Amino acid sequence: MSRSYRLLASLALVLALIVVSMGAWVRLSDAGLGCPDWPGCYGQLIGVPEAAHEVTRAEAAFGKPVEAPKAWKEMIHRYAAGTLGLCILGLAVLAWRQRARRGPWLEIVLLAVVIGQALLGMLTVTKLLKPVIVTSHLLGGMTTLAMLALLWLREHRPARPATTSAGLRLLAAGALLAVLIQIALGGWVSSNYAAAICADFPTCQGSWWPEMDTHHAFTLDRELGATASGALLPGAALTAIHFTHRLFAAVVLIFVGSLGVQLCRQLLLRRHGIVLLAALALQIGLGIANVLLKLPLPLAVAHNTGAALLLCATLAAVARVFAREKARGRIPAAGFPRRFEVVR
After folding, report:
1. What pLDDT score does 161 carry?
2. Which of 268, 272, 33, 244 is nearest to 175 (CA)?
3. What's the rounded Cα separation, in Å, for the pair 30 and 233?
4. Which of 29, 175, 196, 231 could bridge to 255 as Cys pair (CB 3.0-4.6 Å)?
5. What is the rounded distance in angstroms from the CA atom of residue 99 to the CA atom of residue 91?
6. Can you name the residues that pair with 207 across neighbouring β-strands?
7. Kind and range of the H or E element at 79?
8. Torsion of CA 284, 288, 294, 300, to 10 degrees
9. Helix axis angle, 270-292 relative to 297-327, nearest 10°?
10. What are the transmembrane regions (predicted)?
11. Beta carbons of 82 and 40 less than 8 angstroms apart
12. Is the distance from CB of 15 to CB of 22 less than 8 angstroms?
């Protein structure tokens, strides 16, 4: 692809990481409903109501008080997400123009994901932070980030091959699956505001196996803080949500940690192993710190960002493991030196 495509892909990848982090900042600072409408804020596409006459008109029209700080958080996030959408549209256009060299299908799918993400953003507001929609919106953001990471990795394929066994490839696939499941569980914790239900570590509520209500915890079609029947969601359900996420962290530690150690044993893959282990250690440390320090906002946002970084690190490692094996035995079309050409 062209130099402009590579630069735009790099910009979009960095911007996607920022948007994911900002989404966590909005959600965790309780600003998800800072704007009661979409895509504007109290009817304004630019800015939020701050002047006295704007606030009076907005409160009369929407029937709720204007909280400008929360509204600005939401709108800044929307502006960043909109800019990311334009970057992805640009990638799709560039890929389509150069389709003779390579199919643009990944970029087109990515554009469709972003459109779906915009619709989920609207539903997040109109459905009043329904947990399944909020979690889907978070997963959509992570999916966007992951696909941009794949685009970037595709443009930076390794030049030197390395031998990878079937066992290593299986371990890499398992590690990626474990990270994806853990991100979904973390999103469910966040969208249900269940992070603070266990304030101690490694125990939860002073117990190694606290009372849990898994039925109500993982019922998807329900409102925030309520069961499917509309009753108040019991604390045992929130405990189950939090504790399941904590237990599955051990699965991630085993799979991703094992993959990182195995990669470190191969010279050509050692850098990926080190990065993967560092991202894993950072994320686990942030998770424990959030519990012990009672969820300070900067640490909570950092934990979400850490999940995104761990996903990218795992994707990069998996891509190297599979791409290197796929490249074995393949000879570039223009790889023969001229001195070996047959003279006719």
Report:
1. 63
2. 272
3. 19
4. 175
5. 12
6. 204
7. helix 68-97
8. 0
9. 160
10. 76-96, 108-126, 132-154, 166-185, 243-261, 273-293, 305-323
11. no
12. no
Residue 18: which residues within 8 A CB-CB, separation 6 or more?
80
- Per-residue confidence (pLDDT) for residue 324, from 0 to 100: 46
The residue annotated as part of the active site, out of 50, 54, 74, 107, is 74
**Among the listed residues 313, 291, 316, 315, the one whose alpha carbon sits nearest the alpha carbon of residue 303:** 291
* Residue 237 tokens, joined: 């359900």
Cβ atoms within 10 Å, residue 18: 17
Q: Is 2 helix (H, G, I), strand (E, B) or coil?
A: coil
Instruction: Kindly report the number of other CB atoms within 10 A of residue 134's CB atom.
Output: 24
Nearby residues of 118 by Cβ (< 8 Å), 6 or more positions away: 81, 85
Distance CA 132, CA 198 (A): 22
Q: Which segments in the chain show pLDDT lower than 50?
A: 324-344
- Cβ pair 259, 169 in contact under 8 A: no
> Left, alpha or beta for 329 (phi > 0: left; psi -120 to 50: alpha)?
left
Please tell me the predicted confidence (pLDDT) of residue 163. 80
- 155 given a catalytic annotation: no
Tokens of 288: 């424990």
Helix (H, G, I), strand (E, B) or coil at 43: coil
Measured distance CA(15)–CA(114) in Å, rounded:
13
3-class DSSP state for residue 243?
helix
What pTM did the predictor assign? 0.90
Tell me how far apart the alpha carbons of residues 152 and 12 are, in angstroms, rounded to a whole number. Answer: 10
End-to-end Cα separation, the chain, in angstroms: 35
Tokens of 247: 């237990």
Helix axes 131-155, 297-327, angle to 10 degrees: 40
Question: Which residues are bridge partners to 44 per DSSP?
Answer: 41
- At 124, which helix (H) or strand (E)? helix 105-126
